[in-house]
Amino acid sequence: MKKISPDLFSNQLMGIDSKDSSLCKKIIFGSFLQKEQLMKNLQFLLEKYSLDLVLKIVYLQQLKSGFILSDPANYFKAENQNSFYDPYTQICFLVQWNPERALRNNHSILIKRGIIKEHVDTKALINKDKKGKACYLCKKNIDLQNPKEIVLPLKLDEELFYIGANFASISDNHFTIFHMQHRPQKYRKKIFSIMMDFLNKTNGEFRIIYNGLAGASIEAHEHFQTTSIRFPVESMKCNDQNIFYKHKDVQIFKPDYYLPLWIFEGEKKSELNCLLDYFIRYWHSSNPHEHTENVLGIKIDSLFRFFIFLREKSKLKSIEKTGAMATFETSGLFVFSEFLKRKVKGKSEKHFFSSLTLDIIKNMLKGIAPSDNLNLDAMMKIFRTA
To answer: Which domains does the chain have, with CATH numbers?
Structure first.
């Protein structure tokens, strides 16, 4: 069992009625062996309170039960985090040392910690890949393999999803949202309306991430990620010179960044969704085999804002970092963890983390920038006729 700091406990339960606080504590400190009752209690709270509050309770329960590998509070200790202010973009980039994240690939440790079962009827598992590994995001497989995991049903834009805490968390309140169907991680028009619905249901307290085919860990199953932390790129300053297109409620910015970044913002879901869809489809159509994207969605009061990072499938990795870079990195949060003693430029990842500089961070982003550029004139014509 993991200890929960008093500050984390009080912050996560802010907004809960005093008469329900005992129920919240019962959920957080309850045994996963009483999952049926735990789920009923969560459903009661979900009907009474907002989704963001209930998710924070679930996260504390998953942290306390040991399902989450490490306490996010450890990531913010001086020895585990550095920051680098970039005067050009006015972004303060963050780098995180998170060794526990590498444990997600060590099944013996996951079994020892009770995160996955030691003995599983593999014949009952569904949707296996060519290597015989069953999909980790299929609800049936989760029920068979992960006894401690709490998964809530979640309807977004009239489609059924599930949401569960990421056991190898990068940040506080880090969850994965996955479709009830085993369907591929492939862009479709409803992606953005689903993201907006989630932002509405969590009152803008959570951010939502969509990794097209740029860093998505499980490409066979449609999913999103979400967290309550603020990303460095959110402090990006845009002015009138950065406005690429403006019409009624919607503004589109093209700020200066180290890889192509477009920012869409507006209050009306239908109008914003239409322009976002035209934009992504045009990017894909100009090179279908290569073009993909990372997306970060946030909501400020009644304003939706989407950060679109254009990517290419053949440029997912930077020579300065092992593993594919996804929305966390493109949004300014870089995570390092020792994995099978891999080396980065001849150094251990821990040593490389300790020797990072702002120039290295900028080069990591430049290294994954697409070779292709959008035809801006064609893009403007599309927006005007949308």
So the answer is: 1-65 (no CATH), 71-98+148-385 (3.30.428.70)
